[in-house]
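Hi, here's the filled form for the chain we discussed.

Project: internal
Contact: R.S.
Residues: 229
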Amino acid sequence: MTEDAFARRVTRVGSLADPVRRALYRFVSAQPDAVSRDQAADGVDVPRHTAKFHLERLVDEGLLVPEFRRLTGRSGPGAGRPAKLYRRARKEVSVSVPSRRYDLAGQVLADAVERALDGAPMNEAVTDAAQQAAADAVHNAKPTGKDLARVAGVLADYGYEPQIDEDHGDLTLGNCPYDRLAAEHQELVCGMNLDFVRAVADRLGCDGDRVELAPDPPRCCVRVLAPSK
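And the returned structure, exactly as it came back:
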């Protein structure tokens, strides 16, 4: 995860540390439909101007989304101005330190199960699913630079904490994004991890680099060796 992305997530989650803001977020989230400022203020027993301020902050942080609607149900002249309403944003926001990406692991494994149900051997299904996830990661990242710097640029967005050894040119991954899952299902998760990192390197044209398993807790079990190795 880049510094800017991490800062944005921390700011969003940190905004819920305020008790009034947290209460408003929980109230809005619990409603079956979007709510007005008056409804939100009454729901958490705060003045309307206080509710307005905190609701707008939650919108700014991407935790709530606004919409405009006439509450009278009428339209045309005399129907009044549309009211600003709030509902919970569908986008998930989470922060873990160090970074964890169980969502990516879940995506790959769910894809692998679907492939296996279609008749593919499970090992091949996991490899193919990891390769597809890597293709998507490279496409979305659009990394710049040369060789392993581009690999590091992609993997940084997924919490691997990549570091290039300036003396040897190797790429080590300082963090396992699937730590808890890997501890319980080491062979499956480390194999998936290897397939993912290898496919990222291949997609970026790093054909001379060697991706291998090299368990060294608490680091990631995968490392990428420069072509001279």
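Let me know if anything looks off before we file it.
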